[in-house]
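Q: Convert this sequence to structure tokens.
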Amino acid sequence: MPDTSDDARRIFAIFNEIGIVSQLSRAMFEARLPEGVVLSHFSLINHLIRVKDGQTPLALARAFQVPKTTMSHTVAVAVKHNWVELRPNPRDGRSKTVWVTDIGRRFRDDAIAALVPDLAFVAEHVAPETQAALLDHLTEMRKLLDAYRDPENGSSG
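A:
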């Protein structure tokens, strides 16, 4: 049986490195975004395009694990920029759903294009096989943690 304290230290060190990489990559990305735009704004649009638009602000808050008020503010900023539009929820007339506009899709595409020099720098300095292995392992960890937080899967998290 492995020493769980060593396992815990190793997993903590992994999470610590992921946290540092997250901070550094956030700063790198935000430096390329338009003035006054932060990563949470981009992340909202990216999520709606990548996963599914037409979600309620509450569903988005749960997906991002933030308070509904925080998500409502992020959605309001996106509405102000015409990146998204709110439509009545066809299943519940009291709530709204969030839909990406063509302007929002262009914003996302432009943001990713602005990041290309930074992505190229990283690609140049990290071997393709390392990139592939990292992506595989981080995807596996994300899926594990995502399932662990889901109360329907019987998690304690």
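The chain has a mean pLDDT of 92.
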